[in-house]
Every structure is written in structure tokens, then in C-alpha cells.
Design goal:
Rossmann fold; Alcohol dehydrogenase-like C-terminal domain-containing protein; 6 helices; alpha/beta; single chain; Trans-enoyl_RdTase-like; oxidoreductase activity, acting on NAD(P)H; two-stranded parallel ribbon
């Protein structure tokens, strides 16, 4: 989803405290990057310079408690035929708007449908552009929705900038977050076996569908 730099580390970008009136939506929250998205969102909610007041997430019912434990305020069943209505109704009930969504895995069109409901949510503006960051590649035949900007999340194509981004994301942000316990490795790993002989077994299990777990093949001590 792209980890936002802490403004505390960038004093020149001091934006002051902002009104917290948004819910951040993480779609596919039980996937590896989805769980990280939930945890990142939780930290953003604590930042007085972030507009987010809550984290909404989608996942299968069996994983709802786990996703809540990572920091999601509300979790919705992505298989529910009324999931879009449930999410938008919850936001209105909480007096929040949804203008940002991170698609870790799942259907792009459902995320667009949620964001579309909040394109005209600001009385001060005739139309507000909402933003959807997608981890999966965006299909060529994906429909354009007026007021919903969709981007494929990827690092900079410029090598110097890309290395600088990864140095911050991994060497600074994640390293610090893991050390102080504000972020924990997720989801829980499942060790398939030890040795390269287990690679095919791991791939077979992955092809059958894996939910809220990382498959691990150990290759050394």
C-alpha cells in the first residue's frame, strides 16, 4: 500500500493536526500484505496529522477475530452479496467517509463501488476524488469509475529513488516498528517442511488456497 513517511521525520512537511473523519478500507485483509495494511492503518489512526479515524477491513468470517486483533475497527465478509452496502452504511453510522482503499487481493470493482458512494461526500466541494491503491496488477478491461482514481502500487522506476524508498520502508519504518512492537509479523507461518524437497508440496497447498497463513519451507538452520 506504500508506507507513509512519518511527518515527525520530515519537519519541512509539517501539516499540523487535521480533522479525523475518514475510515481507511483494507480489502483482502487476511492476506500477507493485507495484514500489514491493517497494522499500518492502525498506526496512521494514531497520527494526529493523518485524516484516518478508523480501519475497515474485509476477510472471511473465520479470520475476523484475527484481523480485529491487528487493529481493524470493523471487519466485513467479502463474500457477502451486500458487502458494499454494509461497508458504506457502517461508515455513515460512524459519521465517517471512505476516500482511500488498499486492495491487497480481491475484486477491484467492489472497492470501486464503495469509494463511488463517497465521491460527493464533501459539502464544500462539488466532487471529491477518492483513491484506490491496488497490489494486484490492474486488468486492462477494468472499468473506469468517475471520481475514483485507481493506481497500481509499485516503487519508483528510478533506481536511486527506489533504493531510497526501500531503505526507508525496510531499514527505518519497519525496523523501528518491529523493534518497538507496534507492528508484528503477520499472518502466522505454517511450516510445510524442511528442505527443497518440500517446495512442490508447498506449491500444491498454495494452489488449493491458503487463508491467513504464510507457507514456509525451511532450507537451513
Amino acid at each position: 500500500m506504500g508506507v507513509p513517511r512519518s511527518y515527525d521525520e520530515l519537519p519541512s512537511q509539517d501539516l499540523g493536526q487535521v480533522e479525523k473523519k475518514e475510515a481507511l478500507l483494507i480489502w483482502g485483509a487476511s492476506s500477507s500484505i493485507g495484514t500489514m495494511g491493517v497494522q499500518t492503518g492502525r498506526l496512521m489512526c494514531k497520527d494526529p496529522k493523518s485524516p484516518f479515524a478508523a480501519v475497515y477491513a474485509t476477510a472471511g468470517p473465520a479470520n475476523h477475530d484475527y484481523i480485529r486483533s491487528l487493529g481493524a475497527d470493523r471487519v466485513f465478509d467479502y463474500k457477502d452479496s451486500k458487502v458494499v452496502k454494509s461497508i458504506t452504511s457502517a461508515a455513515k453510522e460512524d459519521a465517517l467517509v471512505i476516500r482511500h482503499c488498499f486492495l491487497a487481493t480481491g475484486q477491484l470493482s467492489l472497492c470501486q463501488a464503495v469509494l463511488k458512494e463517497f465521491v460527493h461526500s464533501d459539502p464544500a466541494e462539488s466532487k471529491t476524488t477518492t483513491k484506490l491503491g491496488s497490489a494486484p496488477w490492474i486488468p486492462a478491461d477494468a472499468q473506469d469509475v468517475d471520481g475514483v482514481e485507481v493506481i497500481f502500487v509499485m516503487p519508483s522506476a528510478v533506481e536511486e529513488k527506489r533504493l531510497e524508498q526501500f531503505n526507508y520502508w525496510i531499514g527505518t519504518y519497519l525496523s523501528k516498528a518491529l523493534s518497538n512492537g507496534s507492528v508484528k509479523p503477520s499472518p502466522e507461518p505454517t511450516v510445510v517442511g524442511k528442505g527443497l524437497d518440500f517446495l512442490n508440496s508447498a506449491l500444491d497447498r498454495m494452489s488449493q488456497g491458503v487463508s491467513c497463513s504464510k507457507l514456509v519451507v525451511e532450507i537451513g538452520e
